[in-house]
Every structure is written in C-alpha cells, then in structure tokens.
Amino acid sequence: MRKFSILWVSLFILVLGGCSAKHYTQSEPKMIVLKTPKLKFADTGYIRTDGEAVEVELFAAGMAVEKITIDKEVCVSAGCMSEETFVRDYLYHDYPRDTMRQILLGRDIFGGRGKEEMCDARLFQFIRNDEMDILYRRGKGEIYFKDRLNGLMIKITDLGENNATE
After folding, report:
1. Element (DSSP H or E) covering residue 162
2. What is the DSSP letter of 82?
3. Cα–Cα nearest to 39, from 58, 26, 61, 20
4. Whole-angstrom Cα distance, residue 46 to residue 26?
5. Who is most buried in 4, 45, 158, 161, counting CB within 10 A?
6. Distance from CA of residue 132 to its chain's centroid?
7. How many CA atoms lie within 13 A of 66 on its CB side?
8. What are phi and psi of 95, to 5 degrees?
C-alpha cells in the first residue's frame, strides 16, 4: 500500500511540476554576443519564443551559464524584475521598457523611429541624439544593435544551415 501511495504522490508532483514550465513554440540555436554594463558574453545560445514571451539561454563551452526570460517579468540568475528595471540596469535608463524584448524578437525598437528598408530586404534603424547613437540592423540571419555613446552591443546570428555559407 505504501508503494502505491508513493507512486500516486510522485505522479501528482510530476503533473503539477510539468504544468508550471513555459513551453515555447520556437527554439533556435544562435551565436550571441552581448556587451552591456552587466552582461558580457560571446558564444552559442538558444532563443526560444512563444508570442511575446522570450527566453535566451547562453552557453559557454557547452555549459549553460545564464538564462534571461522575458514574459510578465524579466528573470535572470540574479532574480526577477520588471522590464523597466531590467532595461535601466542592464541597458540604458532612457530606452523604452520593451527594448530588449523587441531586439530579441527582431522587431522595431523605439516605435520604429529612424527605420529604413534597404534593397536587400534588411531593415535599419538609426536613432541619434545627445544621449544615444544607435544602429539597429536586422535581416539575412542577423540582428545587430549597437549604441556607440553608451558602449552597448547585441549581435545575434543564425547557426542554421542556411547561414553557414554566407
């Protein structure tokens, strides 16, 4: 009887635990370079998405070293926080709160300000003022964000077969 109860309790815990994990609809291997005040990283990783939810898992020498999850909050190894706090602490205080999410999803930042489409189907955004000098480029298997005034850089490159020869 005791073995039977342990089995039911184990199944119950497994079912509850399985429901709490986020299931992403898309998972892609990438080469990721991050240079921010609190994140310095250059190696492979995975970007997982499901609608507006994004998870970045960073690896170094095949070992998971950091996970950034953006959903209702932003969670990193140091803990969870609002998107506003994350952007202020990890990027730059004057960026919109959804800047990191939009970069990871390859979408317009700053409401599409300074957006240009090139003839090769790549999209560029140039945002310049006294506090930032941003070049944001996406397309052809790459996302590239650089703010020269604030020393920030995010580069995400596809590792898929289509990009291996480019």
Report:
1. helix 161-164
2. -
3. 58
4. 10
5. 45
6. 21
7. 19
8. -80, 150
Instruction: Say if residue 165 is exposed, middle or buried (CB neighbours under 10 Å; 0-12, 13-18, 19+).
Output: exposed
Residue with tokens 């999850």: 69
Q: Are 157 and 140 in contact (CB under 8 A)?
A: no
Residue 105 to residue 67: CA distance in whole angstroms: 16
Q: Taking the domains of the chain in order of start, what are their residue ranges?
A: 23-164
Report the 10 Å Cβ neighbour count for 126: 13
Q: Helix/strand/coil (H, E, C) string of 87-146?
A: HHHHCCCCCCCCHHHHHHHCCCCHHHCCEEECCCCCEEEEEECCCCEEEEEEECCEEEEE
CATH number for the domain running over 23-164: 2.50.20.10
Instruction: Give residue-wise pLDDT tens across range 27-81.
Output: 889 999 999 988 899 999 999 999 899 999 999 888 889 999 999 999 998 899 9
Cα distance between residue 94 and residue 74, in whole Å: 18
Question: Does 166 have pLDDT greater than 90?
Answer: no
Q: What's the predicted TM-score (pTM) here?
A: 0.81
- Per-residue tokens: 77: 């190894």
